[in-house]
User: Fold this.
Amino acid sequence: MRLPTMSTNFLLAPILECPSDFFQSRDIKLAVLGAGSVGKSAMIVRFLTKRFIGDYEPNTGNLYSRLIHVEGDQVSIQIQDTPGCIQVQEGFVQMLDSLSRCMKWAEGFLLVYSITDYSSYQSIRPLYRHIRKVHPDSKIPILIVGNKGDLLHARQVQTNEGIQLANELGTVFLEISTSENYHGVCDVFQYLCKEVSKLHHSSCGDKRRSSIIPRPKSPNVQDLKRRFKQALSSKVK
Ligand SMILES: Nc1nc2c(ncn2[C@@H]2O[C@H](COP(=O)(O)OP(=O)(O)OP(=O)(O)O)[C@@H](O)[C@H]2O)c(=O)[nH]1
Assistant:
């Protein structure tokens, strides 16, 4: 097969410079964080399998990869489950190195507390600040989730407190029950995937715009005629 000649190379150049993910979307990388046994693993498994599985080994940080549909498009997602052993001291998060690495890696975050555990709610603000420090770009999507919404008799965090916190931090908030409502869990992940995909598309648009090579100006017709005449007259001489 013949390779493209110079002129077709010129046409291809701007396209080849665009990263391949312009045509095929990149993986969506999400992290689920929360202090204590707030239901992180249960939420992820519920979203990916539709099943609520009650008992998990204390989580050491599983990474889940799946193909899912977001607004009709198939996308590949990776979800990092994280250990709940996050300590908050004087408003600052103490965490393992692996968790810090995960924070850098992720492009969208679910911050989960349990409505039955006030201290898990109190850790959301420091976690949020930590993410903002790692990602100073304010666009990174973060969603606050109050889980275990079915355990009303054991409620320690009022729905209003979740809403207020989200308003204060400028994020979105949802109260859900992983055990009782698959759709709530699904909404949470779908929302985050959509937000991350929007960012992918806008960043690819920016890269594409900056990678387009300006097209050389084509000589105008008068100029071509003049050069043609010149060439002819020099041959006649
Ligand atoms: N009633 C009720 N229980 C839940 C819900 N979500 C999770 N659980 C239970 O809460 C416990 C902890 O859930 P996990 O998913 O292991 O929590 P985790 O945040 O991953 O915990 P770590 O591994 O300690 O980080 C389990 O017994 C779950 O069955 C819920 O919506 N309602």
